[in-house]
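Researcher: Sequence of Flagellar hook-associated protein 2 follows. Predict its structure.
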Amino acid sequence: MSTTSVSSSGNLAIDGLVSGLDTTSLINSLMSIEQVPQTLLQNKLTTTNSFISSLQTINGLVQTLATKASDAAKASSLDLFTATSSSSSVTAVTGTNASAGSISFTVGSTASAQVGVTAAMSTWSSAAQPITLVGADGTKTTVTPASGSLDDTVSAINKSGAGVTATKVSAGTDADGTKLYRLQLTSAKTGAAGAFEVYRGTSDQVTAGTATNVLTEVGAAVVTQATDASVTLWAGTAAAQTVTSTTNTFTDLVPGLNVTVSQATTDPVTLTVAQDTTKAQAVASGLVDAMNAISSYYTSNTSVTSTTSATTGTTTTTAGVLLGDASTRDAVQRLSSTMSAPVNGKSPSSIGISITKDGDFTFDADAFQKALATDPKGTQEMLSGIAANVGAAATAASDKYDGSITTSITGQQAVAKDLNTQIDSWTDRLAARRAALVTQYATLETSLSKLQSQSSWLTSQLSSSTS
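Model: Prediction complete. Tokens:
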């Protein structure tokens, strides 16, 4: 009796039409044996990809350490400052070239953008009429709205590129109930340089004095004048000096200090700049944290763990994926030795950096702050020396072109690529083998069918002869 089934390759197969054999199961059993080499290759690829992933992870951690070390190695890495203000209306942010000190000034004015409103109207004009906008520097920009409507006028001004924006604002109704509007005109930037005028007419008419300034018409007004922010240093003395800014932020009022004002003051405001020891400490502790992140990852990926099955009692031992890898082992050992090595005959522990018996590092904030307070120059030199040594080791391991770990990653990626090629080759080979077995068993069934037919014929012939 024949049976119909679907083979593991997805093809419809007819089992044993003549022989009664389960040919699909026979072929699948044979193919499972044939597939063993490919399965081994796939398992090896999985292991290789896991190894590559771990190498890339630790390489990224080493690159992070290299970056932190590069910053910490600078001769001014601890020259981090913060500014405090005697007034809440003045704030300051320190830059890279800031230095300790203080400065006092009064705030004369804050920066503002010009805001003007036109007289109330229902339409701009009876027909399309040229509009000329004149900037503080005398630059003239003329546009012509698509019509005399206020909407088209607003659109034309906003698209002019003259640095002025227009908004239609409701202004009630006139005597006959017609809705009225004003146009609010605002400069795009603050400061005196943002001042502007708006005229009905062409540029030539403005020059000739025949155009109408819409901000001086009856009912119109300049609500806010365009003004610069200003501060006066050493106010009340012969050395008084006023500094202006088009915005409320004064860049480099003194080197490395950006000051922002929010309101005028009558009393002097004092800004004090001092070294930020908290930020300085973060530079050193950040270096330790980055090193410990590497050590922690390496330890967890080189440890050997054993688990025992509660059902069978069988113990399984698993080794970390990086166990036995020379590139990561050497890199971690070199980083640890350079982090703990003396600089100019002094131990890193003198600024709070110490190595434990487990190979991890600790950071003593109190020891660092004490060293920074008593010998800021020596502390900077010590940290820069440690960071330079660690940075060199980290770069040697993680450089994107020739780092030792990077090179290992590249080599393993080549291995994975070759394994993929072999696996693909086996896929084609196995498909051909399955097709051959299907054909072989189909031929067997055909041969058996012929023999069965011959047997039936002979039987019938013998029966006739006997009769």
